[in-house]
Amino acid sequence: MTTRIPHWIHGAPAAGRSGRTSPVFDPATGERTAEVDLADADEVAAAVADAKAAARAWRSASLSKRSAVLFAFRELLHANADELARTITAEHGKVLSDAHGEVARGLENVEFACGVPELVKGGFSEQAATDVDVYSIRQPLGVVAGITPFNFPAMVPLWMAANAIACGNAFVLKPSEKDPSASLLLADLWRRAGLPDGVFTVLQGDKVAVDALLAHPDVAAVSFVGSTPVARSIYETGTRHGKRVQALGGAKNHMVVLPDADVDLAADAAVSAGYGAAGERCMAVSVVVAVGDIGDRLVEAIAARLPKLRIGAGADPDSEMGPLISAEHRDRVASYVGAGADAGARVVVDGRTAEVPAGGFFLGATLLDRVTPDMTVYTDEIFGPVLCVVRTDTYDGALDLVNANRYANGTAIFTRDGGAARRFQFDVEVGMVGVNVPIPVPVAYYSFGGWKASLFGDTHMYGPEGVTFYTRGKVVTSRWPDPATSTVDLGFPTTR
Ligand code: NAD
Fold it and tell me: Would you say the CB of residue 408 lies under 6 angstroms from ligand 1?
């Protein structure tokens, strides 16, 4: 019997009715471990109707009640972090320590949302006009949907759901069909935390479910994280249907290393950020820009580290880098190494020939030097353990390279020169910047988001901008006049 992974509707698992499923694999062995249900438009409509009814009641729950549920969910998430991490590793393949890191960063978003009474506070102006007060309120939108990628099956749903639910919405999650089980664990924790049925829904599915959510009149807003072509299409389709949309896309993150940087520190950072999670992070460093005469020393230092990386099953505590998500993706990543070599890049370390465990979707770490901006290894998001080194003579050359790239998710500069770092932070056209920090994912009380083809929409995700996204403002102008003073006045109201 194959394990069947269901939806989660009205506080309980719900078997799919569409008859369509998608296989789920253990990337470390290549074995097919389960089938996940794929929702059709009717199942989407039924789940949204349930969420709509739940949203109506949930928005009436007091702020302290909502906050109490968030606190309870935080405790449960913390207590069940091991199980969640193991579930992530079993379907995604990332090593356990990385899966724990993902849960920890997701937890931060829940902790932020615990402060919802403070987050949705409005403003109040007494005596805005004579005997007139004006105040602002932030109200939930109703039913909001989240469509999430395979690479963070717990953290990205938490980026969205924590604030959406805290603000009084019902949240419908459409997780990646490649690693769907973490979503069900989260759903069960929400239930145990006391969240009313229907406020957190999981609809497993693919494009069919996404299209139905995008067209559904009762879905008020859509948060999306995934690849750029899909992000763009979600943004265009969702806004055409009158929804609020924030759609985060792909990335090509540059790490600029100035000639004065500490070579070992920069090499450690490049290897950690380039090959962690086998490069399947939207904030992974995929391009190292070596400025001036540091190039040879830096390439040598990175190359020296690669044979020492322990590649193996994510569940093995000794492994540092796990497999890729699928056989197709592994082959696609490997084909880029060949394309880079054909285009004239120097293959310093070739991951295709590395010794890796048999059976799973493994690929060794690759280092390509003397990559130029016209090569596909530079222009495309590879999303695998392939690090490209581009060389430039000057700081300005490095800055121009970063700013000319169509992606603008994250970037980092490595230097000991504070003035140069300050200048980079000022000039670079990228949403998230690290100064001697290779993966500058903002803490939960800031917001996460890139620029250009890395984000469609105008609000970043989580943090204060997440609260703005999941609420709409209302301004009330109020007075309590003495009826005896009432007159007809056709003039336009002024405040003086
Ligand atoms: P993906 O775009 O293939 O899928 C993302 C989600 O969209 C999934 O739920 C999937 O089922 C759905 N989907 C896929 N194709 C669709 C279509 N044609 N129409 C409607 N829905 C569709 O992305 P992925 O492979 O799961 O994730 C990797 C990508 O996500 C990378 O490009 C990575 O950079 C990006 N990512 C970005 C961020 C960020 O914050 N900017 C974070 C994580 C991942």
Answer: no
pLDDT, tens digit, for every residue of 359-409? 999 999 999 999 999 999 999 999 999 999 999 999 999 999 999 999 999
Within this chain, do residues 400 and 266 fall inside the same structural domain, yes or no?
yes
CA of 85 to the centre of ligand 1 (A): 21
Q: pTM, whole model, 2 decimals? A: 0.97
Q: Name the H helices within 16-80.
A: 41-58, 63-79
Q: Are strands 244-248 and 455-456 parallel, antiparallel or unpaired?
A: antiparallel
Ligand 1 pocket residue status of 177, Cβ below 6 Å? yes
Please, which residues have CB within 8 angstroms of residue 173's CB and are 6 or more apart in sequence?
A: 145, 146, 148, 157, 160, 161, 183, 186, 200, 201, 202, 203
Let me know if 282 is a catalytic residue.
yes
Look up the domain containing 94 and give its range: 3-249+454-477
Instruction: Give the number of the atom of ligand 1 that is nearest the alpha carbon of residue 174.
Output: 9
Are 192 and 267 part of one and the same domain?
A: no
* Ligand 1 centroid distance, CA of 87 (Å): 20
* b/e 39-73 (16+ beta carbons within 10 angstroms → b): bbeebbebbbebbbebbeebbebebeebbebbbbb
Expressed in angstroms, the distance from the first to the final Cα of the chain is 76
- For 22, 314, 467, the CA distances from 459, given in Å and listed in that order, are 32, 34, 10
pLDDT in tens, 3-43: 999 999 999 999 999 999 999 999 999 999 999 999 999 99
Tally of domains within the chain: 2
Ligand 1 atom, smallest distance to 206 CA: 11
Kindly state if the Cβ of 149 falls inside 6 Å of ligand 1: yes
Q: How close is the Cα of 225 to the center of ligand 1, in Å?
A: 6
* 371 close to 332: Cβ distance less than 8 angstroms: no
Q: Is the confidence metric ipTM above 0.90 for this complex?
A: yes
